[in-house]
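quick one, 272 residues, struct below
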Amino acid sequence: MGHARIQPGENYPPAKHPEGHYFLWDSGRTLSALQLVTISQGSGLLQFSDARHKVGPGSVFILPPGCWHRYRPDPDIGWVEDWIELRGTTLETWISKGLLKAGVTQISLESPSWGWLKEIHRLCLGHAPGFRQTVAGLAMAYLAQVLASSESPKQSEITLQARELLLTGLDVNNVAKKIGMSYLTLYRHFKKTTGLSPKEYAMKIRLAQAEDLISGSDMSIKEVAKRLGFHSASHLSLEYKKAHGVAPQMTRQASAKNSGPKDMFSWRPQSI
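---
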């Protein structure tokens, strides 16, 4: 992570720019990890291979690995930038699912994420015990806030409506009709906001609910299947094994084996 205040007329990037991240405007650059660049003051220009964006206070650049880009502050105004670079399997999964595409979004100047940025800087400079874990958590919270800011209220409402209908077991085509859009539009919307197709999304949620019911209730597999909208117990078993690698009965047996005596933590109030 890093922070820089670029004064009007100052060369950019500054000479103290980290090695391996330095670039010239004429050549631009690509990175090997995801980077988020946030502008809190001033204005400037961001360019990808296919588009240019004017940016200012509250702008956040999403720069996935392998994406060519270049940016610079307005030489007459300058800007204040903060950047965070993220690596890891979670990020790789989000990128592969299309949730982290190159672009620029806007976060409110009143957003709590500005406080998270300051805390990340403070922790990294202080090197207190456990700071890496705390910084990682704050950085992921900040990333989640950036992604949420790029989703419109209308998109959120569509996702919520479709999710509730899908979890009843309703066919995707019928869900699209009820919401008033084509199947293709609903498919594209879900892919953009969740990284999954509507069918994949609903199946993941229903299988997670199935796992909870199988390991934490006395319901039969048939009853669980009916509750969650599967065609039959065998349909649930097939999808469950595909997702978890074991049959539902194995999950139940493991849960029963690992559970302790029911009265192990029993407690009764005592008279004083």
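The chain has a mean pLDDT of 86.
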